Amino acid sequence: MEKNPSIKCSIKNCRYHNQNENYCTLEQIKVGTHEAHPKKIECTDCESFVLNS
Ligand code: SF4
User: Fold this and answer.
1) Pairing state of beta strands 31-33 and 23-24?
2) In angstroms, rounded to a whole number, what is the distance separating the alpha carbons of residues 53 and 49?
3) What is the pLDDT of residue 30?
4) Distance between CA 27 and CA 38 in Å, rounded?
5) Is the pLDDT of residue 1 over 90?
6) For residue range 13-52, what is the model confidence (pLDDT) as tens digits?
7) Which of 22, 53, 15 is nearest to 3 (CA)?
8) Closest residue (by CA) to atom 3 of ligand 1?
9) Would you say which domain of life the source belongs to (predicted)?
10) DSSP string of the chain?
11) End-to-end distance of the chain based on CA atoms, in angstroms?
12) Distance 20 CA to ligand 1 centre (A)
């Protein structure tokens, strides 16, 4: 899959990861949170993640 040079990502076990380089292949992603009041980087999630099977 073609990388999207605007979205860097290191999550290699995601279906949308470009395995050769650290980029996402989606045209866009959605970032969200699992916290009520996010205060740290750890509070943010890529909600477009899908486990690479
Ligand atoms: S969908 Fe999210 S986690 Fe998956 S490769 Fe793209 S940016 Fe990374």
Assistant:
1) unpaired
2) 12
3) 98
4) 26
5) no
6) 999 999 999 999 999 999 999 999 999 999 999 999 999 9
7) 22
8) 49
9) Bacteria
10) ----TT-B---TTBTTEETTTTEE-SS---EEESSSS--SGGGEEETT--B--
11) 16
12) 14
- Residue of 22, 45, 48, 50 to mutate, ligand 1, most atoms within 8 A of C-beta: 48
> Which position has the token pair 């969200």?
32
pLDDT at 53 over 90: no
CA of 2 to the centre of ligand 1 (A): 13
The rounded distance, in Å, linking the Cα atoms of 38 and 2 is 32
Kindly tell me if the per-residue pLDDT of 6 is higher than 90: yes
Domain positions in the chain are 1-35+42-53
